Amino acid sequence: MLRHRQWLLKSRPEGALSLGDFEFREQHIPDPELAPGQILVQNLMFSCAATMRNWMNAPGRSHRSIDLGTPMLGPGGSQVVKSNHARFPVGTRVTLLAPWEDYSVLEPDTSPTPITALPSEVKLTEALGIYSLNSCTAYFGLLEVGQPKVGETVVVSAAAGSVGSMVVQIAKIVGCRVIGVAGGRDKCDLVVEHLGADAAIDYKHEDVGARLRELCPKGVDVYFDNVGGDILAAVMDNIAVKGRIAVCGQVASYDSGAPAPGLRDMMRVIYRSVTVRGFVMDEFMQDVDTARADMKRWVAEGRLRHHEDIRTGFENLPHAFMALFNGESRGTVIVESGEPAEG
Amino acid sequence: MLRHRQWLLKSRPEGALSLGDFEFREQHIPDPELAPGQILVQNLMFSCAATMRNWMNAPGRSHRSIDLGTPMLGPGGSQVVKSNHARFPVGTRVTLLAPWEDYSVLEPDTSPTPITALPSEVKLTEALGIYSLNSCTAYFGLLEVGQPKVGETVVVSAAAGSVGSMVVQIAKIVGCRVIGVAGGRDKCDLVVEHLGADAAIDYKHEDVGARLRELCPKGVDVYFDNVGGDILAAVMDNIAVKGRIAVCGQVASYDSGAPAPGLRDMMRVIYRSVTVRGFVMDEFMQDVDTARADMKRWVAEGRLRHHEDIRTGFENLPHAFMALFNGESRGTVIVESGEPAEG
């Protein structure tokens, strides 16, 4: 028998998340029988991404929707503990879109989302941190969608976060001037001193529009938008001619229950010839190896780093996830589930 | 002495245009002396474009703003009547951004907007109609900004208008399925029967969202947006994954006095990977000869046509311009000024 804990989606949140939106379940289950091609994994680590908040909504409001009464889903790092698949022998470590549960039966060849075996030299925390799909999102969103040119000014919101902190550094690596927007003095210090941005704007205590006018007298060439709302509006007021906005997330509105308010002045989009391009990481899946190779090189050269905010205890997963929305987290929040006792 | 009529911008309109926003002035002026490099033109024809409504606003709300008390500006067709410039001898016909007045002194080499001599085989009405910058706007906005592929579905608003009618036809020429949106049954019939669209939606009498769902079950690949507002919102509800929106105008809001309402649901922009790209014709100025060559070939092949809605009398200019906003016009509205008597 296996001790099997789960966090299920109990209700679709309206407004801010609460613990009551999640239901904890603990069972003892028999060791599962595997069909051909199946594997049993033990999920060892879970990372938390803001976009998972969207997956809690009803279908049609995001590109993915978790069914009520089923486990929450998020990026995970797991180990194969039983196998009926030649390419995934017992002991293989994988990254995957993992249900929030101790054990999952998977079928790698038919899984709609990739289950990727990890090379032995990569740590699970690195796979969920610096080399994660979040980092690839930063890489492709900035370089492919934003198309920054040497010397251009790039603005990034949620600049101390998992995606934003990588955008700041990659934009510096490719030769841009970078302004990070973050909440609070501590995060702003981190963005400038640790990540290397040229300046930071504390949206909680500063007038973002006024600071952008001051810091970007020639306008914002590329805006990597993680938050939407008022900061998007302030950037639009300061966008350069032929400016590009890579729309990655709209965290400012995730808790509002209402649709993200959007772009408020389309005439400016016209007469400044602005490109606004939404994207999801799925578009670039075929090129993640390129992104990871570049990032590994930059890490080796000491030009790229990542903060992994590692927490412990499967029981704490919802609380750790909620930290993304109350401004408490830095970098990537990763929860180590802790060894479940077998009984 | 020359009889010299002018229409001046009297006040910046808030809400719908009225005749009171324009002031008519008539003077008799001495035949002007020309400095070296200057020419005197007689403005024979004026065409009316919706974007001129934006130029009536205060600076900062558009890429061009007409000063109060100075003549309105719009595309014009003129003839050189006195010349101090070797490349523009007396009799040369030119297109230009023309002040609404009988005579203008111009300096072709320093003019901020191009003054283009017309080849003798091109009629002035054609230069202001089918081969105008409006048509080039349709050409570049569709082909360069919208990037339509063979077999894709293109939706165009203001489809019976000067720009929209060209977009419908060019989209058919490059192998797309085309849905035009226009106001009223007559215009919709014109869009399908005369311009060759696959279907038309009458936004005044039909539910645009419901009709788009029905007509575009696989979603809208390219939307050429001339109007913004509710029609933009309905298209966004039906946009295909990797859909592109070429934002050319926002006529629905020009008369509201408020900023164009914009894109209302940014999450959809993200999870459908939508590109929203505003543009102005100025971006493509260096390539207009290519556009005109293509259009001439299509005209010769009988695949492209244009309706010129020709009206008479300089005195009627504001009224003709206002016809763009009350749904009365078709194609390009051109006003022949009528020969002013010389006295």
Describe this structure in words.
The structure is a homodimer of 343-residue chains. Chain A has helices at residues 52-55, 124-128, 133-146, 162-173, 185-194, 208-215, 229-237, 251-254, 266-271, 288-300, 317-322; strands at 2-9, 22-29, 39-48, 73-83, 93-99, 103-106, 116-117, 153-157, 177-182, 199-202, 220-225, 239-247, 275-278, 308-312, 332-336. Chain A is α/β, with parallel strands linked by helices and 343 residues long. In chain A, strands 3, 4, 5, 6, 7, 14 and 15 form a 7-stranded mixed sheet that branches. Chain A has a 6-stranded parallel sheet with strand order 10-9-8-11-12-13, sandwiched between helices. A two-stranded antiparallel ribbon of chain A has the order 1-2. Chain A is globular and about 65 Å long. The mean pLDDT of chain A is 94. Chains A and B meet through helix 9 and strand 13 of A and helix 9 and strand 13 of B. Strand 13 of chain A pairs antiparallel with strand 13 (275-278) of chain B, so a sheet runs across the interface.
